Amino acid sequence: MQDYFRAFIAVEITDAIRAELADVQSVVEEANGHVSWVRPQNIHCTLVFLGDIFANMVNSITTALKQATVGCKPFEIEIAGLGFFGSARSPRIIWAGMAGRTDALIELQGKITAAVLQVGLKPDEKPFKPHLTIGRVRSNRNAAALVKAIKANETKSFGKVSVERIVLMKSQLTANGPVYSLLLAKSLDG
Predict the structure, then answer these.
(1) What is the pLDDT of residue 2?
(2) Which residue, 88, 105, 159, 164, could crosslink 74 as a Cys pair with Cβ 3.0–4.6 Å?
(3) Cα separation of 134 and 25, whole Å?
């Protein structure tokens, strides 16, 4: 029997940005909405969610990521703005946005998606919207106050990050939330 696990390909952020995002989580938490907050150490930008993969696929994914990043130069993006997916009556995901070279990020994500498709994986088909998930709304409790707190921070800047590599992460679900571990880091070639 083969081992399998949940995996995703992502861009990491700095500890300084994580600290800024933790601060804004605390501010928005005061609205007393029913939110499951992402632990700061787990905040990242998912480029491609792979779902459950077999352990023996890691080598193929490594090759695919090498091919996808050929000619991709490092670039800088700004983590800026707070928003939500869903409606004001029923927000679902609270996110920090991205600004700056999002065109380069979108192009990189497209190349990675194409590469993992070629090795037989079927990544999530939702259109890619660059963001960092910082909270998942569990119910509509105090939704109006929650949305107001999010909107009060919709223009906040959290800092800039230099995208110099992508990572393949393993996600293990536990009773205390997911635990992520690094399987592979691939530098952008430049």
Answers:
(1) 56
(2) 164
(3) 7
Contact 37, 134 (CB under 8 A): yes
Question: Who's near 99: CB < 8 A, 6+ residues apart?
Answer: 77, 78, 80, 81
DSSP string, 145-181: HHHHHHHTTTT-EEEEEEE-EEEEEEEEEETTEEEEE
Q: Are 104 and 112 in contact (CB under 8 A)?
A: no
Q: Length of the chain in residues, anyone? A: 190
| pTM for the whole structure | 0.92
* Ordered DSSP codes for 36-67: EEPPGGG--EEEEEEEEEEGGGHHHHHHHHHH
pLDDT tens for each residue of 80-122: 999 999 999 999 999 999 998 899 999 999 999 999 999 888 8
- What value does the mean pLDDT take over residues 177-183? 91
What is 4-187's CATH topology?
Answer: Cyclic Phosphodiesterase; Chain: A, (3.90.1140)
Q: Of 44-53, 69-78, 172-181, where does mean pLDDT reach its minimum?
A: 172-181
For the chain, the domains span 4-187
